[in-house]
Design a protein that fits this description.
64% of the residues lie in helices and 0% in strands. The protein is mostly helical. The chain has two domains: 3-99, Fumarate Reductase Iron-sulfur Protein, Chain B, domain 2 (Orthogonal Bundle), CATH 1.10.1060; 105-184, no CATH class. The structure holds iron/sulfur cluster (2 copies). One iron/sulfur cluster is lined by residues 23, 26-29, 47, 50, 80-82, 84, 86. One iron/sulfur cluster binds next to helix 4, helix 6 and helix 7.
Length: 185
């Protein structure tokens, strides 16, 4: 299945859950969304994601860094009068984007930390130093858990996906370097 077919599948799944007319005149999810409130609805607007998906215009969303700002808090779903699964939709779009090699660096770093240590944010030397000062033992790294996670990552092709994300970044850097070189000539 190619990207367009995936988007079509996501869109028809969503269409079964939404009364378009009242959704497009609503906006409750935007008011409930902590990310929209924090950074502004002009940058992050859950209803726009729903609308673009239903209107077959979600391709550009896959390239937008804002897609990754969702905290999966599900406030949108809880407040939505139609119970539209906005957070689920955003997760589907993120999955699709990452299958194309599009994933922000901080998310990749977080996933790699989890696989290596069992922690999303591995305990820093600074944190352990502070703990020692307080008479506490260092925070243990979850070696057994991370080994299990690596097995799961291998079985679910997560490692391949991480590799794809890295390859895309290398290609993007090469294109940018070539463009810069071309500009200087
Ligand atoms: S709260 Fe629900 S119905 Fe209202 S705009 Fe958001 S998704 Fe649409
Ligand atoms: S799940 Fe995402 S889109 Fe929904 S309210 Fe939370 S941050 Fe906003």
């Amino acid at each position: 299945m190619n990207i367009d077919e995936h988007l079509e599948e996501i869109s028809s799944k969503l269409a079964k859950r939404v009364d378009t007319k009242s959704c497009f005149a609503c906006g409750t999810c935007v008011a409930a969304c902590p990310v929209s409130r924090l950074i502004g609805s002009e940058t992050y607007h859950p209803r726009r994601v729903v609308k673009a998906t239903l209107e077959g215009e979600a391709t550009t969303l896959l390239e937008e860094p804002a897609l990754w700002l969702c905290t999966s808090c599900h406030a949108c779903l809880e407040h939505c009068p139609q119970k539209v699964p906005v957070s689920e939709l955003i997760k589907d779009l993120q999955n699709l984007a990452s299958s194309m090699g599009i994933t922000p660096d901080d998310i990749v770093a977080e996933v790699e930390n989890i696989l290596a240590t069992g922690w999303a944010l591995a305990p820093s030397d600074q944190a352990n130093k502070k703990r020692t000062e307080l008479g506490l033992p260092p925070i243990p790294l979850d070696d057994r858990g991370s080994k299990d996670l690596q097995t799961i990552a291998k079985a679910t092709a997560l490692l391949e996906r991480l590799e794809k994300v890295k390859q895309r970044k290398v290609q993007e850097a090469q294109v940018a370097a070539a463009a810069e070189e071309g500009g200087e000539v």
